[in-house]
Amino acid sequence: xxxxxxxxxxxxxxxxxxxxxxxxxxxxxxxxxxxxxxxxxxxxxxxxxxxxxxxxxxxxxxxxxxxxxxxxxxxxxxxxxxxxxxxxxxxxxxxxxxxxxxxxxxxxxxxxxxxxxxxxxxxxxxxxxxxxxxxxxxxxxxxxxxxxxxxxxxxxxxxxxxxxxxxxxxxxxxxxxxxxxxxxxxxxxxxxxxxxxxxxxxxxxxxxxxxxxxxxxxxxxxxxxxxxxxxxxxxxxxxxxxxxxxxxxxxxxxxxxxxxxxxxxxxxxxxxxxxxxxxxxxxxxxxxxxxxxxxxxxxxxxxxxxxxxxxxxxxxxxxxxxxxxxxxxxxxxxxx
Length: 336
Description:
The protein is an alpha/beta fold. Helix content is about 40%, strand content about 15%.
C-alpha cells in the first residue's frame, strides 16, 4: 500500500531531521506550554507508534480498505502538540480529501509535518486544504471542550460526524507498585502538563494508602515544573482556592492531592478516592465510561473497561486506540 510506504518514509524523516529538532526547540516561543521535552515526546510517540511499518500493516489489515471519495472536515484541538495527527492519518490512509481547521495554539507543528509529507507524496497537495472555516464537506471530525461540543452538535447536526468532548484518564493503585511504576505514573499525570485526555487526573487508591509516598517518585522527573511560570500560576491559584475553602489536601512544590470523587481535576491538582472492593470499582468505572479515556494500572486486563494501559503508556496510544472508543477509520470506510 503506497500510503504505508509514504508514512514510513515520513517517520524516518521525523526521526532523523535537524529541522525537526529546530521545530522542537522553537515551539515554545509561540506556545509557552509546548516545552521542548514535551514536543519531543509528541514526535517520538508519533514516529514509534503511528509511523512504524509493522504497526501500520497490523492496524490496516483489520479493515477492508477502500478509497473514500469524500471530503472530511477536521477540527483540531490545540491542547497538546500534534493532537490531531491520528485523525489526519485515518483520512490519509483511506484516501479522503481533507479540509482542516487548525488550532492557533498548535498550527506550526502540523504544517511542518504536512510539508514533509508533501515532499514525499506531492499528490497530497490536492487533497488537503487548511481553512479558517469549514464549508463544502461531506462529514466532520471535531475535537473540543464540552462547551464547544454543544456548538458542534448544533452546527453539524445534518452531517455524519464524530464529535469529541472532555475526557480524562484515571489510574488504579493496589499498593503493590514499585518505585519505577510510580515514576512512570508521573509521566501519565504530568506529560503535556496534564492537558491531554489521556492524562491521569484521578487516582483510585486502596483504603489506608499513604499518598505522601507519591511525592518523591513524582519529583524524580518532574520537580522542574516548579520553575515553569504558567504551570505555577495555576498551582498558586488552585491552592489558594483550596485554602480559602478550607479543603483538606496534600501538597508538594508543584502538585496538590485532593480527595474528590470527580474524574476531572484542575491543573496542578490530582483527585483521589479510596477503594477496597474490585467489583465496586469496576462498576464505578463503567458508570463513568463516557468521561474516561483510559485506565492506567499495573495489570490493565484486570479492569472491566475498554482502554486499559500499563504505567507510563497513557500518552503513547497505539494506532487502534481511538479517542472516545469510536473507530475513526471504520467511520470513514463506511462512507465509501
